[in-house]
## 1
Amino acid sequence: FPSHDKGKVFRVGIDGGVFFVEDSRNADAMGSGCLSALTAMDMGADAITAVKMAAKRDVNTGGKIRHYKVK
């Protein structure tokens, strides 16, 4: 990443064989329950609560929830 991007959070991945880098300015979620989690966060839930809510609707979401604070 260029030096002027220090301190920013990026989402990096591969979609359809295409490598991408996105500036993550808003709440983000990945995985099978991501749409439910994003909707929960749009409605005011914090990230942990959003994952718990997504797990109620998506059978592939669950297990131990780990969270990390990015400073």
## 2
Amino acid sequence: ICLCVLQDVAFENGLISISNQYKVLVEESFKPTSDALTTAISSLNGKKIRMPIKYFPDKSYLKRHREIHNL
């Protein structure tokens, strides 16, 4: 999954994940402290990711990520 730096850090730390419908999930307790975080993270909640032409993200890996981070 290709993410910007802020989104990558948020993903790796469990602040965001991706549903089996390929929509962004933002951790409920996440409270942005700046406009940049609102734009980069909070505004993505529920939005579908842009999909590659082939080699979609594996749903089993996305599920495991959600389980690890309780999302």
## 3
Amino acid sequence: TIPQIALLGNGQLFAVWSATPKKAAPGKVFGAFSDDNGKTWSAPKLLMSDAARLMADPNILVDGNRVLVQA
């Protein structure tokens, strides 16, 4: 999917994206952080996975110090 990127209050960039294996409906949502305006990124972390639901097109909502990811 198309990644979503948000600027956090601490200056980091936060990116989320989904990955769906071929011939498999449920996907997984991953996220990564950048401390240098996107030049480099942390290793991806699995954020969401649910075998009963399709995980696709995640979005980010930043509300002060809270960061919410919806897929």
